[in-house]
Sequence to fold (289 residues):
Amino acid sequence: IEALKRDYHAPIEYDARNRGYYLRNPEWEFQCPILDENVLSMTLLGTRLASDFLPEPIKSELDHAMEQALTSNSSEFFDEATIDSMICATGIKASVDPAIFKKVFDAWRRHQTLAFLYKKPNDEPKMRRMEPHIVAFHGGVWYVKGFDCGTKNVKCYAIQRIVSAEYGGERFETDKKMLEDTRKNGLFGFSRIEGIRLLCDASIAFYLYERQKAHNFALERRSDGSVLVALPPAVEHEAMRWILGEEGRIEVLHPPELREKVAEAARRILERNSGAPSEMRKAEKQAAF
Fold:
């Protein structure tokens, strides 16, 4: 049983009431995988990249599995030194407790409900119960998304804010509609602004052309080297962060509401960063008093 679960990912579970094992997915079939060289190499590559942004203990389990695969299979495509030199520089921006991540990950994998204590910023921890339909890595942070138990209310929780977690003891089937909607509209389903048009300096034109196909925006080069950019529908705060991050190299032409919000943010930045730092001004006032 352990070999079937470990080596062939058989969805076997133990039923304490009936004192026996059963297949969680009755349609599962035993198949002994025979990987050709290319499939094995691509599997190793995917595993190596995934291990860079997966938290513990899943990271160590993946690393161990990859170690075994490299030891037992002689790959001409990769050797151990080469595959270790491939780094995925995504970066995890919030630390996740390994035990909690494992509990969330296994609940999602086994289609079991999850009961957990969740702490929002500046708030007391509260108990939540949910069906974890999706586990997602977004913007350097791990999230779990699904329905609150007993409802069809869609919720998304940051895993680093989970204080403690246990299995809820109930099973569910993955909601394909939620999965499709998340792929189409993003993890949080933020409303998007349409018709964004920008005038970008010639100094950043090179990377706009590099990213054009990946981000699906239209470009029109002008005689002075600057570029007119028409963005696809975009989340407002993501567009603003990009525009402000270019340090004045982008002018918002349309829509006027976004132009004003960018200008207001720039005014606040200027106000905050003009003159001496606030702590220094505070110290000077106290000294004068």
Observations:
- The longest strand covers residues 126-138.
- The chain has a mean pLDDT of 84.
- The chain has ten helices and 13 strands.
- Residues 256-272 form the longest helix (17 residues).
